[in-house]
Design goal:
Elements lengths: L1 H37 L4 H8 L13 H4 L1 H23 L22 E3 L5 E3 H20 L3 H15 L19 H18 L6 H17 L4 H20 L29
Antiparallel strand pairs: 1-2
Helix pairs in contact: 7-8, 7-9
């Protein structure tokens, strides 16, 4: 019995050693393949070194490098440049933005809502915002209703909040477009407002530009079927305003009505978030 166990242990050790050797061999082959692609030199010399040949003379005329070294060098430089650009843009060099020009292609695609953090991890900002909003809806009404000071504040300041001249979003609580949160809409509003300020820098009327930004954002929101089309239309509109600025043309603002409580609700009370 002891002899059988000993043989089994030895067999396992041999099997493990073979696996380790195979892994090392595969790694060595992979390294040589990368070296073949990235390192400039005669291809025949590279093959000779890999297979252990003693004749390491360059072919001079038969491989692509010996025929035209300059073209090979340019190809390697281009390859290295693409590798650097892809790796940095995916991890930390450049995060995808709501307003990148690339969102015009297929309306941003599924990846338009996913970003890469500084550690190379992927996260979905819309999912995070949705979860945070759910938590706020659960906690705020229950806790604020217990505070008498909040009840007094709510009754005395409700009218002031509804008539606030600094309102930003039209119908901020609307849920007609799934996964488009108030925070996201405010980010779009800010981007539109910044683009309009740059366009009207010689003739600034902040109040009108704020109202125009709200109208433009709301029109985009109403005409969007989902969060992808909302993002795409927002990007298109911002690019349109920036294009007008670049061409030194005033972007035509929408007609600015006098906002009232009925058509411009402004920010909601915290207690209404749970309704």
């Amino acid at each position: 019995m002891l002899t059988i166990q000993t043989h089994c242990c030895e067999a396992k050790k041999i099997e493990k050693t073979l696996i380790e050797q195979q892994i090392k061999g595969m790694q060595h082959g992979f390294d040589k393949m990368i070296e073949y692609c990235e390192r400039l030199g005669c291809r025949h010399v590279a093959f000779s070194k890999y297979f252990g040949d003693t004749d390491l003379r360059a072919c001079n005329t038969s491989c692509d490098h010996c025929k035209n070294p300059k073209i090979c060098e340019e190809a390697v430089q281009k390859f290295n440049g693409e590798i650097w650009k892809d790796s940095t843009s995916m991890k930390w060099h450049k995060k995808p933005s709501l307003f990148d020009d690339s969102s015009e292609l297929y309306e941003g695609g599924r990846c338009s809502n996913r970003f890469w953090d500084s550690e190379g991890g992927k996260y979905d900002h819309t999912k995070i915002e949705t979860e945070e909003k759910k938590n706020v809806r659960k906690l705020l009404p229950a806790n604020l209703c217990l505070d008498d000071r909040y009840q007094n504040y709510e009754s005395s300041n409700a009218s002031n909040l509804k008539d606030n001249p600094n309102i930003r979003l039209i119908d901020p609580q609307s849920k007609t477009v799934a996964n488009v949160t108030m925070n996201r809409r405010e980010a779009i509003y800010d981007a539109i407002y910044a683009a309009l300020i740059a366009n009207y820098y010689e003739d600034l009327n902040y109040t009108n530009l704020q109202k125009a930004s709200s109208l433009i954002e709301h029109e985009i929101f109403k005409s969007s079927k989902n969060n992808i089309t909302y993002q795409h239309k927002s990007s298109q509109k911002i690019l349109e305003i920036k294009r007008s600025t670049k061409e030194q043309k005033k972007y035509e603002l929408p007609e600015l009505p006098n906002f009232s409580q009925n058509n411009f609700e402004g920010f909601k009370l915290a207690s209404s978030l749970g309704k």
